[in-house]
Amino acid sequence: MVSQKQGQRLVYRGGANLYLTNMCNGRCPYCCVKEWVTDSPQAAQYMSLRDLDKTIKWLKESEIGFVQLIGGEPMLHPDIIKIVKKLKSQGIFIRTILSNGLGDPEIYRKILKLIDTIWLVNVNHPSTYTKEEWKKLNQNLELLSWKGEDKLIKDEPFDLHSLSLQLAINFYKQNLDYGYIIDLAKKYRCSHIRYAPSHPSSGETNVHIPFEELEKLKPNLMSFIEDSVSAGVKPGLECVLPPCIFTTSEWRYLVLFTEAIKTICQPDLEVFPDLSVNTCVSMMGLIPSYKVGEMSAQDMIKRFLLDTKSYRECVPSYCEECELFKKKDCQGYCLKIKTKYCK
């Protein structure tokens, strides 16, 4: 997040997303980095340990204290254990590891012994996996599952990281069958399911949900949210949604029973294996990217705020009369989707 002022200085209090590799063993039709990822070892890119050192130095000099590990599939990086050890030894907190759960179980087990972190595992419908993949996924979910539910709070202090496992689901079509992920959350004692309508990749070659399809998606989305809450699992929105598609009753439910609903996205630091830094994978090629060390992360965030300003303030036809948009309480859905209105 970006705090408004410290004296006259804009201060970024977020972390950095480290895209360790574009190698992936998943087949997600909605993948937001579809043009970048590969399943070919010959075409794969990996962040080197030397470049990781440069990134750590830059983060520390910029007062950025935590990261998320992303891919592709970060568990496929051949040096993932060394990366985790290096970040830990340098005092960089690994807040989240994003995975598809299809890595070698021994790697998950080794990382579990090294650090406490949140594991965000993206899970698709069981029919999209082979029998062996589904078996491996469940094996890893059991490894990552919360084991402290029966301990007394005085013996096992409770915080978000003690829960360890969160699941993720993308809504990329109407009437998506989501029951499986709630069942998995209950089975593996998972506290949260993060959800989002599928947003476009930079080349828009993935399956994604344009604004005009959101109303049709909403009944499925609301049913998922209500069923998750009924099952004792907290749904949390992963990316922005415009409030205008909801009734006041629906919005009240979202505010009361789910994690905070985001209507405006803040810039991120997305660091890639070649040490390029972007603010949003969907907007790659539309706004400038920078390089690690080219300037401080704090100055880079200021640039990203300026680079995205015209898209954020662009007024699509569906926002022209919206008071929430006029008051800057909403950016009008995904910036990438808005680009067609911002010529």
Description:
The chain has 343 residues and is of the alpha/beta class. It has one domain: TIM Barrel, CATH 3.20.20. It contains 11 helices and 12 strands. The strands form 2 sheets. The protein has a 10-stranded mixed beta sheet. A two-stranded antiparallel sheet has the order 1-2. It is globular.
Main attributes?
12 strands; 11 helices; TIM Barrel; ten-stranded mixed β-sheet; alpha/beta
List the topology elements.
Blueprint: E1 2-6, E2 9-12, E3 16-19, H1 49-61, E4 66-70, H2 80-89, E5 93-99, H3 105-114, E6 118-122, H4 131-144, H5 160-163, E7 165-171, H6 179-187, E8 192-197, H7 214-230, E9 234-237, H8 248-257, E10 269-271, E11 276-278, E12 290-291, H9 297-313, H10 323-326, H11 335-338
Parallel strand pairs: 3-4, 3-10, 4-5, 5-6, 6-7, 7-8, 8-9
Antiparallel strand pairs: 1-2, 10-11, 11-12
Helix pairs in contact: 1-2, 2-3, 3-4
